[in-house]
């Protein structure tokens, strides 16, 4: 029997743990955890993501601040806002929603966030800590951290002897995911668009993580029988069967056929997606514990 991971349920258990941790910090140190979310421009999908992040922060008992800036915001204005948020002692986490409008350069903005408030885990200091195996000192990018929760709940903390293949090499996901798997002792391959015979590489994977942004690219004959398949893709495709002009979300994995071969698989939607927000909340409460000089909880 194939296990289909219920991402909403796992995310809810992480959120419960975050609520308990933030309440404990309030009770023990009088500190209320604070998260600032910044969005620039009018992209409807980004607005939807950001409002669910702000809402979840409130639900977790955090101070939740949202800065909604107009499309024509300048680089200097955005940089000045980040400096203000960096200095604000009531805020432990800062997230600038990506992508930014085209006229803005995201990299200097992300790198200007204090590393200890970089709950997205995108600052080079946090990327560097992960790369050097310092998992307890920095903040890990939320989507790989969430995918790793699934891997550990399936295989335990120690992945010794297991082959893991990550398809995708982005800074936001592929690289940090590979480093998390490596830190847990997996034998890791990072595959990408230039990899020769991708199917053969994937068939070697006990843990296959797909993050390429190509709808249903991973087919059943790419999957090793009994593998764990984590699908990080979110692709909107036309769904004429649902009516004219309708669409639906699919992952990077052809779910139905791969579910016949895998032992454990995540669906899209309802797999990794809900975990991203949960891990953002986890990172924020971790940042608040560290600022208060207390040992941070693990999620
Ligand atoms: N846009 C899509 N995913 C993310 C994310 O994880 N962090 C930020 N900042 N923006 C995003």
Automatic annotation (TrEMBL):
It comes from Rhizobium herbae. Pathway: One-carbon metabolism; tetrahydrofolate interconversion. Homodimer. The gene is folD. Catalyzes the oxidation of 5,10-methylenetetrahydrofolate to 5,10-methenyltetrahydrofolate and then the hydrolysis of 5,10-methenyltetrahydrofolate to 10-formyltetrahydrofolate. Keywords: Amino-acid biosynthesis, Histidine biosynthesis, Hydrolase, Methionine biosynthesis, Multifunctional enzyme, NADP, One-carbon metabolism, Oxidoreductase, Purine biosynthesis. One of its GO terms (molecular function) is methylenetetrahydrofolate dehydrogenase (NADP+) activity. Pfam families: THF_DHG_CYH, THF_DHG_CYH_C. The keyword NADP applies. This is Bifunctional protein FolD. It catalyses: (6R)-5,10-methenyltetrahydrofolate + H2O = (6R)-10-formyltetrahydrofolate + H(+); (6R)-5,10-methylene-5,6,7,8-tetrahydrofolate + NADP(+) = (6R)-5,10-methenyltetrahydrofolate + NADPH. NADP(+) binds at residues 168-170, 234. The keyword Lyase does not apply. Its EC number is 1.5.1.5, 3.5.4.9. Residues 5-120 form the Tetrahydrofolate dehydrogenase/cyclohydrolase catalytic domain.
